Structures are given as C-alpha cells and as structure tokens.
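Morning!

This is the sequence you dropped in the shared folder:
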Amino acid sequence: MHTVDKDLPVRAQQGDENALAALIARMMPAIRRGAAECTAPGLEFDDAVQEGLIGLFHAVRGFDPAMGQTFTAYAAACIRHAQQDARRAALRKKHAPLNFSVPLPTAEQSTDTRPGPEEQAISGEQLADTLRRMQTELSELERRVVMAGLSGKTPAQTAQELGLPTKNVANALARARRKLRGGPTI
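The structure's back. Tokens below.
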C-alpha cells in the first residue's frame, strides 16, 4: 500500500480538492483489493468500490494525527469496514429476492485486483469527471456543504457557519449526493 504524505489528509480536511484527489489515487489499489474480496450476491465490484470511497471520505473526515496512527492505516481500516458493512447488508435476508434474481448480461470483469494502465487511466478520468461534475452540477451551497462534510464538519456545524437552518444544509447534502450518484434531483 502506498504511504501518504502527512500533509495530504490535513489539506483534504480543509477542503483542498487536489489533496483529496491525491488521496483517492493513492488509496485506490486498497479500495479495489477490498472490493474484490467483498463482492457477494447483491454487492457487485463497482458498488464495493463506491463503498470503499465512502470509507475513505469518512477516514479523511475523522483522521486525527494526534492519535498516533498513520493516515494510511486509519484509512485502510475505514475502507475495509465500509466494504464489510456493505457486504453484510447485501447478504441480509431482506435482500434475498434481489440477490438471487437473474442479472442482465454484462461485460466480464477481470478478477485481477491490480489496476493496469487502462484501469488507472479510467480511474483518473472518473475522478476528474467527479470533480468536474462537482463544479458544474452542484450549486455553490451544495459544493460548500460537501467540502465541509469532507473536512469533518457536521451538518449542524456547517449550518451554524453558513447561518442557515440545519435542515437546509442536510437537504443540500442529500441533493449533492443524488446528483453525484446520478439519481433524480427532485
């Protein structure tokens, strides 16, 4: 696993998108390895990768260098826990009808968890696309709320900082998540 410069997590917590992008790029091999290990009926590889990214965002938000742990170790644990939680959720009995339905045919995915040059280029493009989409599809409030969340602020803290009701901040965060996931923005 790649080591991470000590200032990257701090800069990412402060809202530096370039630092966040660098952390994602450095941690992507661990995220992909964990995703390959956590796939299950109801949890496909790409979904497990997304869960790993969510775990990384939690790691960025919750990392405290004073605790004596390296960011790499802390992030790896957060990524692993997020992916394992998603796997457990996918295997619950309430998801059984979905888990055992007949899937639509898709292109066969490689079982090799080491990204090749093409996959690295695709990951880089996906990251650049996400950052571009944050700039173009999110309102200024939604961008500020997302970046505040990534820097470790709760919706209540963000609301106080922006002088808005907490409900407005929570709604903006939910809209931003839907937009970035490609869901309806009703």
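Headline: The chain has a mean pLDDT of 82.

More detail when I'm at my desk.
O.
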